[in-house]
Amino acid sequence: MSEKVLQKFEVKRLEILDENGNADSKLMPELSNEQIISMYEAMVLTRKADEKALSLQRQGRLGTLAVSFGQEATVIGSAASLKKDDWMTVSFREEGAMLYRGIPLENIFYYWGGDERGNTAPKGVNNLPVAVPVGTQTLHAVGIGMAANIKGKKIASMVYFGDGGTSEGDFHEAMNWAGVFNAPVVFVCQNNQWAISTPREKQSKSLTLAQKSFAYGFNGIQVDGNDVFAVYKACSEAVQKARKGEGPALIECETYRMADHTTSDDAKKYRTEKELMKWKAKDPIERLRKYMEKEKIWNQEKQKKLEKELDEMISKAVKKFEDTPAQEINAIFKFMYAKMTPRLEEQLSYAKEVAEEIKKEEKK
Q1: What one-character DSSP code corresponds to residue 23?
Q2: Which of 21, 93, 150, 341 is deepest in the core (most CB within 10 A)?
Q3: Where are the domains of the chain?
Q4: How far apart are CA 316 and CA 109, in angstroms?
Q5: Catalytic annotation, pick one of 257, 271, 287, 337
Q6: Over the Cα atoms of the chain, what is R_g?
């Protein structure tokens, strides 16, 4: 005789701020006007820095890059929930979160310019470098969480990944280990509807991505990823529980990638203008600005002042990036191990020979 084992679960969805800037006062997190303004300024900085980086790339002054147009509420709302001693592990579309956590603006340009110094975090800033291989960074975040448990440190380890990342084996291994070892990890899924050209509905048969957490023994929630208040509240609650030793959580932020996947992609080939315009009406920056204006904590004068200040800040960062001498060629090889292996030394020697030949050709 067999018995049926059934575990019921319910996925909740959190929405606080609508497209017209109206907030549900019963659900609003405790935030001062100063905190709200700070998050708004960070979102605008993220958008403007992306716009500048995209312009530089088109001029051949930066390499291939990924921007976060439309996803600013997800990255800033989540980053704002962390404390200084918490850890953050990113993929390649969270420059806003990195800036909010103390990464210098010029580092963003260094990184997309192919300079490894862009991955260097200032002392005391607990951010891991950008991880481009999809899903791999989830394991790093779980490792940090497990280490914190072993050392008895009450911290949270937050990690970002996209909807496409949930199809990777690394993601499932990370979720499983986080559940088994009660690691204080907050998994933040930036569900921007497209994994390059693969739509969300072809990524998983699950009704939500948040529900994947229940298979691994912990809770998940879906939030409006274009609502910075909803993202902040869900992440804050998850971070607080993680710090208390109550284990991991998965937060699915439903947002939209308003730009191409990267500068080497053309989204027009696989999605419609109608879909794009539908999501542009949900712009996270616009809805927060509308809320702030209704609450009389923001106006056009403050907006103009902010934009001028940010433009100046970005210009200075670009100048610092472009005025910095290029690294020596050995920088490509020396950061892989504490001591270079014979194979790497051989590659470095060959690279130097090629570089010398190029210089000779340029002098002719």
Answers
A1: B
A2: 93
A3: 12-326, 328-364
A4: 11
A5: 257
A6: 22
